[in-house]
Design goal:
The chain has 215 residues and is of the alpha+beta class. It contains four helices and eleven strands; from the N terminus they run E-E-H-E-E-E-E-E-E-H-H-E-E-E-H. The strands form three sheets. Strands 3-7-8-9-10-11 form a six-stranded mixed sheet. The protein has a three-stranded antiparallel sheet with strand order 4-6-5, sandwiched between helices. Strands 1-2 form a two-stranded antiparallel sheet. The chain is globular, with a radius of gyration of 21 Å. 28% of the residues are buried.
Amino acid sequence: LERVRSPDGVETLRVTDAGIVTLAQVFATNKAARNPHEALVEQVAQSMGRAGRLAWRGLMLRARVPLALFGVEDIPAPEAPPLIAGEPAPAYQAGSEHAWVMACPDVFSIRRSTVEAYLEPVVHEIKVSRADLLGDIKKPAKRAAYLDMAGACWYVLGEDGRGRAIGDPTEVPSECGVMLVDRGVLRVAREAPRRAIERLPFHVWMTLAHAGSPW
């Protein structure tokens, strides 16, 4: 950045030619880093579509999580905005033992059905980095949020640069299912426990409506 002073004394910031080049390089690097994750998210969403489901990517949904998973017994600031699930910080109070948090599943899908009890909402969490996977499985509040909004939660583990899975199914907590990428094909390594959900909360329907067309 370059600071420029006008004849009348007003100062502005100008992006130099070198700055533009730097921004372009950073953008290209970030885009390349995001591509493997985004590609696998898209693959899972398309797979859900072929299985007769409606799938959304990048939703932000409200979920109820036990306070004990945050390491607190009470939330002192009930008017504070909800935070991303897994972060040990204040969130909306949701009763004496729970808090509202905002969770962002990579893929959220439901069955194509006109019967609400048959929708079977499912969350898929995509991991393409081992470091990201190891950090994520240490966040029980995040998984609890996913399981609050869906009847099943899956971890989809991508491959490293040598074509090896970034993790072993046994590393993923037992309340979640595991899918692996095998030569570009998704396969089930461990089934996800399922529970029935009679209906989707109204706020979920509103989020889906605002999100636009699913896969």
